[in-house]
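User: Second chain of the day. Same drill as before.
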Amino acid sequence: MDMSLLKSSILIVDDSDYIKAITSTLLKREGFVNIYVASDGISALEKFKELNPDLVILDIMLPKMNGFDVLVEIKKLNPQAKVIVISSLATIDNIQQAKNAGAAYYLVKPFDNQYFIKTVKELLTTKGKE
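Assistant: Same format as last time:
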């Protein structure tokens, strides 16, 4: 794997401490070092503006501002932003709404850990817009 990939900055946005811990641990185990977290939609946007991360892992059900609205704002700030939505809401409407707003992937919780890592690496190695 390309070592520069491991220096990618990743913002994890989820109100569940458990999900933030699991995703952070999985990424760190793979060698990623620049991992940031936010627990609600407002702080997610603040951190996005501050960090302009290479990848955002975004939950839908968030306090203060839902993930769909966060995704729309992220894409306004940076149309090339790479976003993976993770949610337990596995409806066709939600998946379509996330895709329409610019999400590259929609992973349903609980997700397979190896597939999660594969998706992250795949997205970080693609250039430009999805």
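The first strand starts at residue 9 and ends at 13.

User: Great, on to the next one.
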